Amino acid sequence: MGTRGAVNDTARTAGSVAPVGHDAAYGGTLPELVLARIARVSRDGVAVVRADRIEWVNQSLAHLLGADPATLLGGRLADLHVQDVDVDALDHLDLASLCHGEGGTTTVTAARPSAPSTALSVDAVRLEPGDDDWWVLTFRSGSRQLRADEDLRASEEQFRALANNAPIGVFQSEHGVRLGYLNPRFAELWGEDADRLHGTGWLERIHDDDRPNVIAALARTLNGEEVTNTFRVERSDTDVRLVQSRIVPVVRGDRSIGFVGSIEDVTDARRNEEQLAWQATHDPLTGLANRTALLQQVQQSLTPGAGRIGVLFFDLDDFKVVNDSLGHGAGDRLLCEVGDRMVAALGQRGTVARFGGDEFVVVCRDMATEEEAIDVAHRLLAELDLPVNLGGRSVRISASVGVVLARAGTADGLLRDADVAMYQAKRAGKARVAVFDERARVEMQQRLDISNGVRNVLASGEVPVAYQPLVSTVDRRIVGAEALLRYDHPSLGSISALEVVSLAEASGFINELGDNVLVSACRELAGWRLEHGDRSPDYVAVNLAAAQLAEATLLPRLLDVVDRFDLVPADLCIELTESQLMVDANQATEVLTQIHDHGIRIAIDDFGTGYSSLAYLRRFPADVVKLDRSFIADVTTDRATAAIVEAVVTLAGALGLTVAAEGVENAEQLRRVIELGCGLVQGYATGRPTTPDAFPLEAPWP
Hints:
Layout (H helix, E strand, L loop, with lengths): L1 H13 L2 E4 L2 E4 L5 H10 L3 E6 L2 E5 L1 H7 L3 H4 L9 E2 L11 H5 L4 E7 L7 E9 L7 E8 H23 L4 E5 L7 E2 L1 H7 L3 H4 L13 H12 L4 E8 L5 E13 L2 E11 L1 H15 L9 H11 L7 E8 L2 H8 L1 H19 L4 E6 L2 E6 L5 H15 L3 E3 L2 E3 L3 E8 L4 H17 L5 E3 L2 H23 L4 E8 L5 E8 L1 E3 L3 E3 L1 H11 L2 H23 L6 E5 L2 H4 L4 H11 L7 E6 H4 L3 H13 L3 E7 L16 E4 L1 H6 L4 H16 L3 E5 L4 H9 L4 E3 L20
């Protein structure tokens, strides 16, 4: 071959040193193929041999042999200071392997002139396959190989230590699906001794339904693909665990001979994920669908071509009484019982969801008529009406129900309309069913407009308040002024104080509204005192809502406002209706006692409308009992009504209370209530509500 001849001739004629890379090359210029090989292995000793003649050596080989490189060139292989190696040594190599380019290896001992003998390993590779003349020999020090072997063993031991103590399962196969190694965590996950899992025994514990997928995944791995798989393991202790594996192929040459993998127990993580997913769509107390799931279901039901769906919005009546009297634990048990009863009564007819608080929503598909929806609502109400045992107490519950039917729209819109209808049922007397109509929507929109309007007035700090005189029947003097809330909506006109207070309670700004009226009343009384002195009223009366009475900061706020305007507690009278007091009579008694003990006057308003029992008069600390105007309207024409008024006056006198007659509209009513012993009167006959500037100093006695 021309190239080989050129190399040989150059080496023999030059006999000099030519630099190649970092090493010095001896014997002249070599072919590029030789140079590439030398460049890769130049850290080791390298010699190029033709037959048994040394054509080229590098500096590393000269160092290993303890010889001058120049003395090695042109010599025979047998002339190297290497024991047990001669020309025939090459014949001892695996010639079949060399012909396929895989090389061969032998071990020799180098006897260096000025150093101890050393073991060398020799790799021999033909320069070209099928050519028996040209060889490349690579020499390595035995101590270096030993260090490499030790490093390899240390690395393997380190890997095994890490694998044996890994918190996840680790396994390895070097032949098909048979496991040759698995760590303790792998055996622990399987619940088996490691010995029983080697080979293919590990596959037996994989769930029957999952095993084919696992085997298919392993086949893909053996074809060179990384695979992640999730499957169930049936442990020997009957526990079933969900595991996730990641398997990568082990490649030797150009083919996959096995795999290594990791496996992790994801049972608890998957359960947690499922629990979180469940919690996202279910109410944690009752287990029913929650608002999120309800909205999704309603929206999915509003598909083109589907039948009408019915949405029934349930709100439990007076649920707060149960919480306040029996505790929130009893209230929770009641909510669970309500949910269970509704689900059982509805069956497959629809879905029950807890919308929030004491509100439940029922969704029924393919509901043909309003009558059908009303029938479902009444059937559910009948179930709710059955007694519930709560801690040894038998409790009955009712609900107000709003119904809406629709084929199209939005979930939010339908639930809003059903909510509107429910409030319509609530305002009509509770424990009944109301079907949504546009009138209800308009009414609810008006309530929202009024609520927003009152909020805007509150933001400005000026809520209009009118004052009506309370007149003594003894000396006809104005002794008090009741502060009456007044609100005129820009488009709806005058709105009653009762409706404003109701909206404020429902919307959560009743305390802000009440404080505003309280401040206005005390400020006006202080102004009248400065301007008119003793001719001004003895006190101002302010109405409180039941929600205000439940506030722990009520008494400090009352005293703070009184002190702010240099008044004394007796200059203020708070009025609460009998019905408000009976929401929680025990709490009301405790709070009113504290207020009364500080000198603030107390009046029971609208007496006779809530509980019509004179015995209630002695339960609450009070100064004034104000008879409801319904008694005064009939006091001149109905003897029974007059007798009731007289009885209240007698009992109140025995308890040291003053009776005030509200709604005295004319001289005849005024004369009669005076005859019956009422100490105070209030009404158009003795003074209409008016602005602070127009408040009279003397009553217009008819």
